[in-house]
Design brief:
The complex is a heterotrimer of chains A (320), B (497) and C (314). Chain B is an alpha/beta fold and 497 residues long. Chain B is 34% helix and 25% strand. Chain B has 2 domains: 237 residues, Rossmann fold, CATH 3.40.50; 232 residues, P-loop containing nucleotide triphosphate hydrolases (Rossmann fold), CATH 3.40.50.300. The mean pLDDT of chain B is 87. The longest helix of chain C is centred in the N-terminal third of the chain and has 28 residues. The chains are: A mainly alpha (320), B alpha/beta (497), C mainly alpha (314). Chains A and C meet through helix 6 and helix 14 of A and helix 6, helix 10, helix 12 and helix 14 of C.
């Protein structure tokens, strides 16, 4: 047991997140027998997949540093869901245009976030919070306050029905996204640059990286992922309303941080975030099983975030 | 008569580094006392100890015959010691009066007494009447003032404390001749009131014009204390230098018919009309006291603090370098001594830290570690870098090995111009030797190297030619037999050879 | 001196101009705007934001930010009404409830200050997290909106004293507070902390105390805002004030305070908050379709934030 590799792996956030998931499953099973049966796990993973897709964008933003955070993902998900619902309107032929529009428009809005953060230097949290208000206002105008649109049957089936081996299609999509994220972060100049600017922006500038461009793109991608998650949300629930995405904002941040990505940027990865999304989804499910009330869940979330700050988010001490 | 300050047997150890081994400083009441020495001799550390900003490892500090032990700058301030910060302590958004009295506001009851502060600030500003230029008023916003006026405000902040001992570390660096003159007149007037001044200056002229006595330090120890009237510039320089050293013999045969880098009339906030040429295969040393324009020149050539005017030519082409990527694409490389701030991707692997510049230079889109690792390993191995594996975090390496990694980062791009900004700061002797060998082999392979070091001996040993900087411009060019420690120190103190 | 430089030094000048234009436009669109009763009710609506923005200013001046203000408002509101009800709804109970609410707000400020200044947490994410906790606690204290306060409470709030409405007195008190603080060394020091933290540290200022002080002021003003809102709604609501964090930051920026800290004043934030309130009014009376109102307001806020940050950046 004294092997340093094993000890290091035990302290790794990815391991901890996976262990927490398994532990929570056991707790759930004890509290409510049947909690950990196969079909239940698939259902939990489906929910985790949607969170995981949002968290992919959030992960890039947080990795990029300079207090990076994207609070507009909630409204982007709502936007994606509403746009996709109207593009599809229950027709399978509308799926492709839905994906293009519901991904493309949030991508462009994300770029605006990035420009505000990078060039106007509005703190990311304030910028994306402000953008949230605008998107929500836009949604009210667009939808005239009335829910409309519907998921295409094929999309709903893809997300809710088993595709192969009892596993729904969305889980395969999630795995594909994960492969893409891991490839981009570990094997492309863009991924290396994301880590570099998050780790030390000054040093990144001094090796000649186009720091502003990369940062703007990161926020665009966060919008894209949120929009696509919106398409999944409408596929999952069948209909959409203009605040359907709100519930994903905080979990997307927490999933990323649980998975070992530093809030200071520059360290972490997507595999940890996936494990974080799964652990958080199971935790939410256990809390519901426990009949915990809204307030208690909220306090638990807040305290979790503070505890994570203690581990990952402290500032340097001043010296003479 | 008791001395205003008597610091005896001061030692200070930072980790494994002995910054001070035998610091001694005696300042009489009403005396202007110069503290002199080459870079890294310990004069700044000694000042910080006197001002309570750094605690000594051992030794005693006495004021007016009583032993004192300050735990923080506030305590020293209360005891009557005021420290001049080189512009670091001003708040750009606040007015001149607010800055002067920050933390020691004059009050009437609970409220800040603005009238009294403005009156007193106006009196203080009046000290520089006629030489301070336009716009230095009590309510001027400090951030909008030019550098000389900001420095005057920093000086007034010290004067406002009515201290018994003032420590003026390069307080005249940004002042023009008349302003410096006025500053010294004020110091002399304060002398009559019994106020003592400890002065650190890079101008030998100033020291001999103003100071009563001189303490000379070398390698963390006080070497001698002299009466200014009874000594000469030459003697002081020799005391600072110690054993006179000439430059190590260099291999001759440098081709000087076609310059590689040509800089003409370079100017920005820290540079005043810098012009010079270098040749392929040459190691050009940049010497002088710290902060006289050496780093600023390297940074401007690399585009991180661009020039406001002047021309840069390289290999016959005129270049516009506005940002670091412009420099990288032209085959420039910049290695900073401040690794943590300027180079290190903390928390990332050694591999990532090395390929960062290569990826930019070669416009890579996909990075294949398997394909790049052999190349990267070879560069790192050529530097005799010791590491367990390319995937280990950069933080697992010692300072010296980290610095080799950051140099390897640039060597992988086969640079044509290497800008070395005090690259040996805080690394061990073995690593230094490797680094210098590497510098030479790069030069022999045809690269041009600009090398600034805060240690004069490194420049003497490894540079082919030296430019000495003083106050943002070149005060001397030394080559051949003229490259001696004495000439370098004299030029560094603005005394042309 | 160019126009742009003037704006950099005195950015609130433009905010005052905008305010006057909005007042004019509003008066044209809604002629009853100048009637005392309408002005009083408008002021009552704007007051919570004005007060929160005053508190937020001090935090921002020090280079920090307080995103938990909205949740503090909700928590203070529910604590106040719950304590009043628990103490039996007498006049004494009203004062007891207000005191309990006020102490709650101060405690929230202390908690924020402790984490940020004491434990060196990032201010943005920390107040985001404490905001979630405070909001959760508010729901715990009072799960459903309701629990009316005694009539004396809200009636006093809508009354006049010495011929001047109570709401106007509160505004006057708030402005007087900002003017008093602006004459204390505290404000200069706080500004110094936000302007150049290293420099302030070297000058020997007690950074920790100053930053905690700013968060406590923010908590206190969030309490005042909550007590006013309680007078306005006459009951408790755990979901109150959700939008106050962003709008208070916008008001502060509109009032000419640099979001990065080190420059500005709280009196400007009062004008900034008034402008935000008036924008809502004008949009309403301009006859813009209801569904466009949030969008237009959101866009204006975002544009104002961007413009304000841009002008005060240095």
């Amino acid at each position: 047991m004294n092997n340093p590799r094993i000890l290091a792996a035990l302290g790794d956030p990815l391991t901890i997140a996976i262990a927490a998931s398994v532990g929570l499953l056991i707790v759930g099973e004890i509290l409510s027998p049947g909690f950990a049966q196969g079909s239940q796990i698939v259902r939990l993973l489906t929910i985790a997949a949607i969170l995981g897709i949002v968290a992919a964008g959030q992960n890039l933003v947080i990795l990029g540093g300079r207090e990076g955070i994207d609070l507009s993902v909630g409204s982007m998900i709502s936007l994606g869901a509403v746009l996709a619902g109207n593009m599809m309107d229950g027709q399978n032929s509308g799926i492709l245009p839905a994906l293009l529009i519901a991904g493309g428009i949030p991508f462009l809005i994300g770029l605006v976030n990035g420009i505000g953060v990078t060039f106007v230097r509005i703190p990311p949290l304030v910028m994306t919070l402000g953008m949230t208000a605008v998107i929500q206002g836009g949604l009210v105008v667009y939808s005239q306050g009335v829910p409309s649109g519907a998921a295409a049957p094929l999309l709903s089936a893809f997300i809710n029905q088993p595709l192969i081996l009892g596993i729904p299609g969305i889980l395969f999509v999630w795995v594909a996204i994960a492969l893409a994220m891991v490839f981009v972060l570990r094997r492309t100049a863009f991924g290396f640059a994301v880590y570099a600017i998050g780790s030390n922006e000054r040093a990144a500038t001094l090796v000649g990286l186009p720091v502003p461009l990369i940062r703007v793109l990161i926020y665009g991608l966060s919008g894209l992922f949120a929009g696509l998650a919106g398409v999944c949300v409408i596929g999952y629930t069948g209909t959409s309303f203009i605040s359907v995405g709100d519930q994903y904002v905080l979990p997307s941040v927490i999933a990323v941080v649980i998975g070992g990505t530093s809030l200071a940027g520059g360290a972490g990865g997507y595999l940890g975030t996936m494990a974080g999304a799964v652990a958080l989804t199971i935790l939410q499910s256990v809390l519901i099983t426990l009949n915990l009330e809204v307030w208690a869940r909220q306090v638990i979330f807040g305290v979790t975030l503070l505890a994570l700050m203690l581990l990952y988010g402290r500032q340097k001490k001043l010296r003479v | 008569m008791t001395n205003a300050l008597e610091a005896v047997g001061i030692t200070k150890i930072f980790g494994a580094v002995r910054a001070l081994t035998e610091g001694r400083l005696t300042v009489g009441k009403g005396e202007i006392h110069a503290l002199m020495g080459a870079n890294g001799c310990g004069k700044s550390t000694l000042c910080k100890i006197v001002a309570g900003a750094v605690a000594p490892t051992s030794g005693t500090v006495g004021m007016d015959g009583h032993d004192v032990r300050f735990r923080n700058p506030r305590e020293a301030e209360r005891a009557g010691v005021a420290l001049f910060y080189q512009e670091l302590s001003l708040i750009p958004q606040l007015s001149v009066a607010d800055n002067i009295f920050l933390g020691r506001e004059l009050k009437s009851g609970l409220f800040a007494d603005r009238k009294a502060m403005n009156r007193r600030a106006a009196e203080l500003i009046g000290l520089f009447d006629g030489v301070s230029g336009q716009g230095l008023t009590v309510d001027a916003i400090v951030g909008t003032l030019p550098p000389d006026q900001r420095q005057i405000v920093e000086i007034l902040k010290v004067f406002a404390q009515d201290a018994k001992i003032m420590i003026m570390d390069e307080a005249t660096a940004a002042l023009d001749g008349r302003q410096s003159q006025r500053f010294f007149e004020i110091l002399k007037a304060k002398k009559a009131e019994g106020v003592s001044t400890i002065m650190i200056s890079h101008r030998l002229d100033e020291v001999f014009a103003v100071c009563d006595r001189i303490t000379v330090m070398r390698n963390g120890a006080t070497i001698t204390e002299l009466d200014t009237a009874a000594t000469t510039r030459k003697a002081v320089v020799h005391d600072m230098v110690g054993e006179v050293r000439a430059a190590a013999p260099k291999s001759a045969g440098l081709s000087t018919d076609r310059p590689s880098l040509v800089v003409k009339a370079a100017r920005n906030a820290s540079l005043r009309d810098v012009s010079f040429e270098t040749y392929p295969g040459e190691i050009l040393g940049l010497a002088g006291l710290q902060g006289q324009g050496q780093s600023a020149l390297l940074k401007s050539l690399f585009g991180s603090e661009p020039l406001t005017s002047g021309d840069i030519g390289f290999e016959g082409k005129s270049l516009a370098i506005r940002k670091p990527s412009d420099a990288v694409m032209n085959g420039f490389a910049y290695v900073s001594g401040d690794r943590g701030r300027d180079a290190s991707f903390q928390g990332r692997s050694i591999f990532e830290n090395i390929v960062a510049a290569l990826a930019v230079r070669n416009r890579l889109r996909i990075i294949r570690p398997a394909a790049l690792k052999p190349q990267v390993s070879k560069v790192a191995a050529d530097l005799k870098t010791k590491f367990a594996g390319l995937d280990m975090p950069i933080g697992t390496l010692s300072g010296g090995n980290q610095q080799k990694i950051f140099i390897a980062r640039w060597l992988a791009t086969a640079p044509k111009l290497l800008l070395l900004d005090d690259p040996t700061k805080g690394i061990d002797l073995g690593a230094k030797a490797d680094l210098f060998a590497l510098m030479r082999s790069q030069a022999d392979a045809g690269a041009t190297i600009l090398f600034y070091s805060s240690e004069d001996s490194e420049i003497l040993d490894y540079a082919d030619r030296v430019l000495v900087f003083n106050g943002g411009s070149i005060s001397a060019e030394l080559k051949g037999d003229a490259m001696t420690s004495v000439n370098m120190t004299r030029a560094a103190y603005g005394d042309a050879a | 001196m160019t126009m742009f430089n003037l704006l950099r030094r005195q950015p609130w000048v433009i905010t005052v101009l905008v305010f006057l234009i909005l007042v004019t436009v509003n008066t044209v669109l809604q002629p009853s705007f100048v009637e005392p009763s309408v002005m009083q009710s408008n002021l009552a609506t704007f007051l919570p934001l004005i007060l929160v923005a005053i508190g937020q200013t001090y935090v921002i001046l020090a280079g920090d930010i307080d995103l938990s203000v909205g949740s503090i408002v909700a928590l203070v509101n529910v604590v106040t009404v719950t304590v009043i009800a628990a103490l039996g709804g007498t006049l004494g109970a009203v004062f007891g409830g207000m005191a309990a609410g006020f102490v709650t707000g101060i405690a929230c400020g202390l908690i924020n200050g402790f984490f940020i200044s004491g434990l060196r947490f990032q201010p943005i994410v920390t107040t985001f997290a404490t905001g979630i906790i405070f909001a959760g606690l508010a729901i715990w204290v009072l799960p459903q909106a309701g629990l009316p306060v005694p009539d004396a409470y809200w009636m006093t709030y809508t009354e006049s004293v010495l011929g001047i409405p109570v709401v106007a007195w509160v505004l006057i008190a708030g402005v007087v507070f900002t003017l008093v603080v602006s004459r204390l060394p505290f404000l200069t020091r706080l500004t110094a902390v936000g302007g150049n933290r290293t420099g302030a540290f070297q000058t020997g200022l007690s950074l920790g105390g100053l930053r905690i002080g700013a968060y406590v002021i923010s908590g206190a003003f969030a309490s005042f805002a909550a007590l006013c809102l309680t007078g306005e709604t006459a009951s408790g609501d755990p979901l109150l004030g959700a939008s106050l964090a962003l709008s208070s930051i916008s008001a502060v920026v509109l009032g000419g305070t640099a979001l990065a800290g080190g420059f500005g004043n709280a009196t400007g934030s009062v004008v900034g908050a008034l402008v935000l309130g008036m924008i809502g009014n004008v949009i309403f009376f301009a006859g813009l379709p209801f569904e466009y109102q949030t969008l237009v307001q959101g866009l204006i806020v975002l544009a104002a934030l961007a413009g304000g940050v841009f002008v005060t950046r240095r």
